[in-house]
Amino acid sequence: MKIYITRHSLTTWNEEKRLQGWKNSDLTKQGLEDAKRLGNYLKNQSFDGIYSSPLKRAKETAQLIFPNKTIIEDDRLKEMNFGDYEGKFIDELKKEKDYYTLWNEPQGDFSIKNGETYQEVVDRVLDFIEEKYKENKKCIFITIHGMLFTVLNGLFLNLPIEHFNEVNQNIVRGCSLSLFEYNGKEFKIDYIGKDDFLESRKTKISYK
């Protein structure tokens, strides 16, 4: 099964460098344009299913990419819930021990207060993938989020949760395209963060 993945497009909280989990902020003008560019790039690609996180920024990104297609929302594709830290400025959070642990010392049972654990996020996203594989989907598209993408990247590299910090140095760009594959037993990464169809950008996105 081929899994095409994009992260939601640029939002106001992304620009303001705030932590964004289950809480939401609007897509920016650049975000709207990027989603349309990805849609144009994919206009001749067919999918057995198009799925999105139900969070507004992801759902709107998917609708802009596929304006005439059916998009199925799935709670298992939501971003990690960052609890009490949601909406706070990244620079301020970097002073907090729990925030450091979140990114640099990930553990299955760790969560920000009132948020989700890594294991809870892993369980729900793997459940989604297994379900779609068992439904005999050959090629799907999902619109998700930055930390969820990091989790998927770690899983597809067969990393234990404790090593997810190896793949979270930079967060994948919004509306870039990645392609993973799953055969029911093994994972394969074809490419990550393809963005030559978007306007060029030199800066990397980091929350660490």
UniProtKB/TrEMBL annotation:
This is Histidine phosphatase family protein. The keyword Transmembrane helix applies. The chain crosses the membrane at residues 139-161. GO terms for biological process: negative regulation of glycolytic process; regulation of pentose-phosphate shunt. It comes from the Bacteria. Keywords: Hydrolase, Membrane, Transmembrane, Transmembrane helix. The keyword Membrane applies. Substrate binds at residues 7-14, 57. One of its GO terms (molecular function) is fructose-2,6-bisphosphate 2-phosphatase activity. The active site is at residues 8, 79. Gene3D superfamilies: Phosphoglycerate mutase-like (3.40.50.1240). One of its GO terms (cellular component) is cytosol. SMART domains: PGAM.
